[in-house]
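User: I'm putting together a teaching handout on how sequence relates to shape, and I'd like one worked example. Could you take histidine kinase from Paenibacillus illinoisensis, show the sequence you're using, and then write out its predicted structure as C-alpha cells right after it?

Assistant: Happy to. First the sequence, then the C-alpha cells directly below it.
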Amino acid sequence: MLQRFELFPKRYGIYPYIWMIYLAMPIYYLWNAQGLDLYIGVTVFILFILTYRQLYMTSGSSAFSYWLGLQMAVVLVLSLVIDPNMFFLGFFSANFIGWYTDRRKFRRFLLLFAIVQTIPIAVNIEEFTAEQLLFLTPFYLIMLVSPYGIRTMLDRQQLEAKLDEANQHIKELIKREERMRIARDLHDTMGHTLSLITLKSELVTKLITKNPKRAIQEAREIERTSRAALREVRQLVSDMRAISIGEALADAQEMLKSADIVLQITGDLGPYGDVPDLTQNMASLCMLEAVTNVVKHSGASQSLIHLERTHDGVQITVRDNGHGMTSTERPGNGLKGMSERLGLIDGSLRMTSDAGGTILVFSFPLIASEPQGGV
C-alpha cells in the first residue's frame, strides 16, 4: 500500500506550520528583486522550503546533517544575492542545530553557522549605518545563543520522558513483586495451615466414636488453627490496601484478643490527619507485622502499643512479655520487611529482645504538606 503523504510528521503538531509564518519576510524581498537575481532567489528560496520540510522528516538520521548544511548554504546565497536581511532566516537553522544530542556535531555546526551568518554582515558592512548595525547585533547574538536553549529544553523533555518510563517500569516491578510475595505467603502459610486442618479433621472423624474427649480437644485445635489462618488472610488483605494508623490499632486489638493476649494502647492516639497516606500505610503495616509476630512467636500473655509524637515525627513502640529471642536466633523475613517498608518513608526500626520479652520501636519523620509561615 502507498504511504499517505505528510507535509510534516504528525508528532510535531502545528509547530512546523507556525514557523512558516516567518517566510513572509523573504517573500517581500524576493518581490522587489529583478532579472537574474529574481530567478536565482526564487529557485534558492524553494530549495530552502524543501530543506525546512526535510529537516523535520529526517530528524535523528544521518541525512539530517546534510539537509542542515544545505539550508545554511541557501541562507548564505539569499543573504548575498537578494538582501543582507535574509540572514534572519538563520533563526530556522539555529533551531535545528539545537536538536543535536551529540556534543561534537552540535559545536561543529554551531561554529559553521556563526561563520555563515557573519559573512553577509562582513561583506555589506560599508552599506550598513550605525543604527542598522545596532539593530542587527542583538539578533545576531540571539541566533548564536538560541541553539543552547533549544538543546537544553529538548534534553529536559527527553529526561522527563525517560523518568516517566522508569517510574512506570518501577510500578510494574512493584506490582510483580507484590504478586509474588502474596503467592509465597499463601503457599507457605495457608497451604500448611489448610493441610493441618485437613489432617486434624480426619483424626476427629476417627476419634469421635472411640475417644470423644480427644475428639473435642482436636476440634478446638482446629478452631484455633482456622483463626490463625483467618488472621493471615486479613494480613494479606491489609498489605494490598492503604490502611490508617487508627484502623491498624483496631485490627491489632482484634488479632491479639483472638489469641487471648491482653493489649494495652497508650500515648497519643490521634487523630493522625497530618500524616501522609503513604506514611500511615507503611507504619500501619509494620505495626500489624509486629503484632502478628507477637501472636505467632512470642508466647506472650500481654502486649503494649505506645504511640508518641516526637519533635520531628512519630514513634510507635510494640512491646510483649513473651520469651524473647535468644542470641542464637536470627531475625526473620518479617523484620526485614518492616525495615524495608520504613526505609521507603525515611524511617528506622530498633529492636531489643531478652527473656522478659521483645520491644520494637518504629520511628518515622513527618514532612509538612504545605509551606510554613504563610509563604
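A couple of points you could highlight for students: The radius of gyration is 37 Å. The domain at 244-375 is CATH 3.30.565.10 (Heat Shock Protein 90).
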